Amino acid sequence: MTQRVFDLIEAINREGLDNTQWAVYDLKYASTGSREFLGTREDMKLGGRLLVVYVNKDDTYSFLRPETADFKLTIDEYNDIYLWSL
Questions:
Q1: How far is it, in rounded angstroms, from Cα 84 to Cα 12?
Q2: I need a labelling partner for 62 at 20 to 30 A (CA). Which of 10, 18, 44, 55 fits?
Q3: Number of Cβ within a 10 Å radius of residue 84
Q4: Within 13 Å, how many C-alpha atoms sit on residue 30's CB side?
Q5: What does the pLDDT look like over 27-77, one tens digit per residue?
Q6: Are 80 and 64 spatial neighbours (Cβ–Cβ below 8 Å)?
């Protein structure tokens, strides 16, 4: 586990996010589109290992820093998905 992965999981834990609000996906053997796989408006090709956090646009986070995410995708006018490549 790298320091980056540890820091992300620690921030998720400190925020109190449960397993409905974040996930880790290993897509290294399959590639799929984000619209089909995650339900986003954008359709970005996904692959590799990803840490995904589902966020409500009105929520504020003390420990998790969404601005450090590699990608930000939109679900609807109220919800976004932040992706970190692992």
A1: 13
A2: 44
A3: 18
A4: 7
A5: 877 678 999 999 999 999 998 999 999 999 999 889 998 889 999 999 999
A6: no
Do the beta carbons of residue 57 and residue 78 sit within 8 Å? yes
pTM over 0.85? The answer is yes
Q: What letter does residue 42 receive in the DSSP assignment?
A: S
Tokens at 3, concatenated: 């320091």
CA Rg value for the chain:
12
| CA–CA distance, 15 with 32 (Å, rounded to integer) | 29
